[in-house]
Structure formats: structure tokens, C-alpha cells
Write a structure and sequence with these properties.
The chain has a single domain (5-149, 164-197), classed as 3-Layer(aba) Sandwich (Rossmann fold). The chain contains five helices and seven strands; from the N terminus they run ααββαββαβαββ. It is an alpha/beta fold. The chain is 29% helix and 30% strand. The model has no long low-confidence stretch (mean pLDDT 94).
């Protein structure tokens, strides 16, 4: 990507709609994070931290990673404003280069659809997870109404499950948890949560 569209969107990213959707996602992700008080979490494609900063109390540490510096600046502002001691940010784009990192849990929320090579990114995320680590993906179910050159039109749960197994995950559970109107490129859509163990 030559120009990072998220750099331009950063300042106006936290809209009412996005914040509402984030609340729904946070509730669902929290169910996957029971007994994670001693675990480290990476939020890949964290944006302004709408999801992960709401999880700071249920895990030991959070690293917000994004390829948009502007988004991370906003996230940093929230971290200091809310006084969240266990959250830090890192500017990185795993589609270009993955730094030496590891974590017990990786959350990827509404990010996969923006990454052309799904297999490559899943492999990178698999590699940074500790043994028995958990990858949590939230994204849209496949939606034939969507046609955009830079965005996947959602994912077939069966295909994604197969990809996760191919990459090396021992288990992959996926279920739809939310249907919303005009939530995906102004189209009605459903979201799934996927939980995979390395």
C-alpha cells in the first residue's frame, strides 16, 4: 500500500458506529479471555485501541501494533489519559516484516479483510504465539454484496478453518455472533469470532 488510508482516517476513526461495534466485539472477545490475567496479548491492527484498551484489565499486558502511526498516536493518547499501565504501542506492518515478538494471545479484529495474503499473515501470527497460545480473529462472514479491489468480501468459515489448520493450529473454532445493518461497507453483514490454539 503506497498511501496508508488509515493515516488519513485516524483522526475521525472513532465514530459512534465504530465505537458501538467495538463494544459488541469486546464483549465477545472477553468470553475468550477467561483466566488470562497472567497472559500477554498483542492486538494486531489495533487502530486507535477501541478493542484492546477495553481488555487491559483481563490480561497481564497489551501491545497494540498497527501500520498507521496516526492511529497509534491516538491510542497512546488514550493510554496516558486513562492511565492504563500495562498497554504499549508498536509501529509495525507484518505484511512487510515481522519483528521478534511473542505473546500468549493475539487478537485480530476486522483486520484480516484488509490483508491480501491471508495465509502469509496467519503464518506470521502463528509464529509469534507462544506454545498453546491463542489466536482470536473477529471478521465478517463472506458477503457477496461487497465488491472492493482492496478488501476481502468477508470469509467463509469453513475455508478459514482449513487455512488455520494448514498454518499449524491444533484447533480452530468459529461461530457467527452478530448481525448488523450497514456495518460492512454500508451493507448489512454478520461477524464471526474464531479462536485457534497453537
Amino acid at each position: 500500500m503506497d498511501t496508508n488510508v488509515f493515516e488519513e482516517m485516524a483522526k475521525r476513526y472513532d465514530t459512534e458506529d465504530r465505537m458501538e461495534l467495538a463494544k459488541i466485539i469486546v464483549q465477545e472477545v472477553k468470553k475468550e479471555l477467561q483466566n488470562s490475567e497472567t497472559k500477554s496479548l498483542i492486538d494486531y491492527g489495533s487502530g486507535t485501541g477501541l478493542i484492546s484498551l477495553e481488555l487491559s484489565e483481563v490480561v497481564d499486558s497489551i501491545l497494540l501494533i498497527d501500520s498507521s502511526k496516526q492511529m497509534l498516536e491516538i491510542a497512546e493518547g488514550k493510554i496516558s489519559q486513562k492511565g492504563i499501565p500495562n498497554a504499549t504501542v508498536l509501529y509495525s506492518d507484518f505484511t512487510k516484516e515481522t519483528p521478534e515478538l511473542n505473546a500468549d494471545i493475539v487478537v485480530v479484529s476486522l483486520v484480516l479483510l484488509h490483508i491480501p495474503d491471508t495465509n502469509k499473515i496467519l503464518t506470521e501470527l502463528f509464529n509469534i504465539l507462544n506454545k498453546d497460545g491463542k489466536l482470536i480473529i473477529v471478521d465478517f462472514d463472506k458477503n457477496e454484496q461487497i465488491d472492493h479491489p482492496k478488501v476481502h468480501n468477508g470469509f467463509s468459515q469453513e475455508e478459514l478453518k482449513n487455512k488455520l489448520k494448514e498454518v499449524g493450529f491444533k484447533t480452530a473454532e468459529i461461530r457467527t455472533f452478530h448481525h448488523g445493518s450497514r456495518i460492512f461497507m454500508k451493507q448489512d453483514a454478520s461477524m464471526f469470532i474464531s479462536s485457534s490454539i497453537k
